[in-house]
Design goal:
Layout: H1 10-21, H2 23-77, H3 80-89
Amino acid sequence: MFEKTERHPLTELILDDVFSSNKLLLTLLVSLVITMIGTIWLTHQTRQLVSDKGDLVFEKQQLEREYRNLILEETTEGNSTRIQARARKLGMGRIENDQEVLILE
């Protein structure tokens, strides 16, 4: 009544079918996965570079602002004629050696 039939492993049949009959489909699937990973990686790199550029632009603006402030400070404090005129107006002058007072604690 029942005949004894051979059993074939199902996974072996499926893998054999995929690799022998559907080579184009498998190639397209692998290409699609590689393209997706490449697109994701490239998008991540681009966003990171844009973020780094923003940080560098902000740092450049801060450095330029500091540079302008230092130039202004140099011009106002480096003007010796203005300082000497103000010192003369206040009655200030250079201290001589005999005018020096040394305080020791």
